[in-house]
Amino acid sequence: SAVISQKPSRDICQRGTSLTIQCQVDSQVTMMFWYRQQPGQSLTLIATANQGSEATYESGFVIDKFPISRPNLTFSTLTVSNMSPEDSSIYLCSVEDRSRPGTEAFFGQGTRLTVV
Amino acid sequence: AQKITQTQPGMFVQEKEAVTLDCTYDTSDPSYGLFWYKQPSSGEMIFLIYQGSYDQQNATEGRYSLNFQKARKSANLVISASQLGDSAMYFCAMRGVDSSYKLIFGSGTRLLVRP
């Protein structure tokens, strides 16, 4: 199974600022995914990040608000830009295990973001 | 469109007893995968078990088993011999062939294990 390190684990930010969340994997993975979990809610996919190409965003999420980088096969970042209290959520990255494609999906520890 | 439904917002179970968490799904994909995750209060998502749509047998992982009924489109999670550490949110999720490996999640069930 892939080991995923996500940083920071939590942060409290001022509205109008930006926060960049990092996701590091201990093995090369084809696909990395970024999810948002609003308080008391389920997980919603923000975007899929593939190495060497632009991220693919889900309906309701835009690149200007959630820019994503994927410089190599083991690392990705998600930035939450111009934050408002509505962005307070848990943000999680997930990867596809290339050794068992489609059968497992592992998550980082999550970043608990509070915007004040 | 794919959809996952978890109809139990909360469940109680006595320690050492078994509990079943319900999950139904809807998809037009001929091939798909079903997942269960545990989310403790820390917020991390812990992978528990996977069932492929073409798997002949129900998946099992230790105390976790998946009661897969394809005709009924249900994929219930059974936890045997509940432990206090099992208290958490549980999410059912689905991934289809055409969904580019993204997961669609249900609304979750909060399980509380009583001593």
Protein architecture, described:
The complex is a heterodimer of chains A (116) and B (115). Chain A is an all-beta fold and 116 residues long. In chain A, 0% of the residues lie in helices and 51% in strands. Chain A contains no helices and 11 strands. In chain A, the strands form 2 sheets. In chain A, strands 2, 4, 5, 6, 9, 10 and 11 form a 7-stranded mixed beta sheet that branches. A 4-stranded antiparallel beta sheet of chain A has the order 1-3-8-7, with no helix packed on it. In chain A, a hairpin with a 5-residue loop joins strand 4 and strand 5 (43-50). The termini of chain A are far apart. Chain B is mostly beta strands and 115 residues long. Helices cover 0% and strands 52% of the residues of chain B. The A-B interface holds A 1, 31, 33, 37, 41-45, 48, 56, 58, 90, 92, 94, 96, 101-110, 112 and B 33, 35, 37, 42-47, 50, 52, 91, 93, 95, 100-103, 105-108.
Tally of separate helices of chain A:
0
Broad shape of chain A: globular
Strand content of chain A: over 45%
Number of strands of chain B: 12
Number of helices of chain B: 0
CA(first)-CA(last) distance of chain A: 37 Å
**Biggest sheet features of chain B:** 6 strands, mixed
Give the helix proportion of chain B (percent range).
Answer: under 10%
The best one-word shape of chain B is globular
Structural class of chain A: mainly beta
Low-confidence stretches of chain B: none
Return the average pLDDT of chain A rounded to an integer: 91
Q: Strand share of the residues of chain B? A: over 45%
The average pLDDT value of chain B, as a whole number, equals 93
Rg over CA atoms of chain B: 14 Å
The topology string of helices and strands of chain A comes to EEEEEEEEEEE
- Counting DSSP E segments of at least 2 residues, the number of strands of chain A comes to 11
How would you describe the oligomerization state of the chains in this entry? heterodimer
Instruction: Please summarize the sheet with the most strands of chain A.
Output: 7 strands, mixed
Low-confidence stretches of chain A: none
The helix content of chain A, as a percent range, equals under 10%
